[in-house]
Amino acid sequence: MTTILWWIRRDLRLHDHPALEYALQKGRVIPVFILDDRLLQKEASKRKQFLFSGLRQLDEDLRKRGSQLIIRRGEPLAELTRLIQETGAEEIVALEDYSPYARRRDSHIARELPLHLFAGETVYPPSLVLKPDGSPYTVFTPFSRAWKALPFASPSVVSLPERFPAVPDKLVSLPIPEAIFLQDFPPGELEALRRLENFLSGPAREYADGRNRLDQPGTSFLSPYFRFGMLSPRWAVFQVRKMIQITSSPDEKRGYEAWLNELIWREFYISILYHYPHVLAMAFNPALRAIEWRDAPSELQAWKEGKTGYPVVDAAMRQLKATGWMHNRARMIVASFLTKDLLINWQEGEQWFMQNLVDGDPAANNGGWQWTAGVGTDAAPYFRIFNPVLQSAKFDPQGRYIKTWVPELTSVPTEFIHAPWTMPLSLQISLGVRIGRDYPTPMVDHQEVRGRVLEAYRTSQGKTRN
């Protein structure tokens, strides 16, 4: 019987998994996960907890089928070489990973070992969605048109065997690291599929409008599951396309199409990182690489702690610290505040997010920060500056989101919740909420600092032209 190592990386699932299906058809499959310290040291604490919990769930799913997860720790090439020697495996299969580190790692291993990579992290590999001249897209709308025009291969309906070939008894496995269970994100493929079904039958119908509301559960909460491949992106696209076809409601169709676009944005940012790996180190737009960002460590720290004096910004930053997740609208608001109001380098925010997000993904995180900062590919115009008070009033009209994460403002009336510094002093005293004592005064005046950031961006463009 042919023995194949199934090298699991960021694909903690059994279904719609081309590499696994190939391996099962050829013979004995040995599921392997390698704890790579070069990657683990970069992972946020909550992201590691979610990963380790996901590994436990995957191991449980495998054991129900008579198999198990083999855990090793070390440099991947060395560990895979050792496993081939121990098992006599003839091939290693894995899903392709498009990050710069993963591509270098896999290219090196493929020169030494029989590594066979399959597509599966995205619906279409980045090398497939190209302009007619073979160059990559750098603007989302034409990318999405080309993406949608490609023939869609429905997810595999291969029935997995009830019993997988048993892993040799003599094969040693390290214990899966202990993990703290994240209440907001139970791990595993079944949970991901359950969430997808509930989302498509509920909030997705109103997603076009509801996705921006901070005070309502209008989003899918699936990003951590995509991050670690507990949910197949192809399966998600297949399901939402099916809903688009069967609904008779124009509003529902608009909602489903809006979510499909979000899935395509994910693939767009992966494509950008694949073709332009330098974006992890610098702005995509060369004309905006010379911005003179402010060195303001105390202001950066106040932003991180949710003590800026702008309630919606503070609520979002506290949500991030407490849960490892933040609403996408909130991500744009806090990113705009850091880069535009405070004129602090977007890379500081990008790094902080990666240190805290349970769904932190290099491609999406980098793309989102560069978009909001106005320095990236297909970026929002640099002169688009979110007004945190107006954003708050529009997307959290009653202040429910704010009061959930900024409890010191719980008693503040709705008319003042978005700008509590405008409350009369007598009301502050009667409510027991003194601005400047119980809650910070705004760090900056949004209207006053607007000119500062516009000048900084224009100056950078001038330096490039000259």
TrEMBL record:
FAD binds at residues 207, 219-223, 259, 262-269, 359-361. It is an enzyme of class 4 (lyase). Its cofactor is FAD; (6R)-5,10-methylene-5,6,7,8-tetrahydrofolate. Its EC number is 4.1.99.3. Residues 2-123 form the Photolyase/cryptochrome alpha/beta domain. Binds 1 FAD per subunit. The record marks 293, 346, 369 as: Electron transfer via tryptophanyl radical. One of its GO terms (biological process) is photoreactive repair. It catalyses: cyclobutadipyrimidine (in DNA) = 2 pyrimidine residues (in DNA). Signal peptide: none annotated. PANTHER family: CRYPTOCHROME (PTHR11455), CRYPTOCHROME CIRCADIAN CLOCK 5 ISOFORM X1 (PTHR11455:SF9). Belongs to the DNA photolyase family. This is Deoxyribodipyrimidine photo-lyase. It comes from Anaerolinea thermophila (strain DSM 14523 / JCM 11388 / NBRC 100420 / UNI-1).
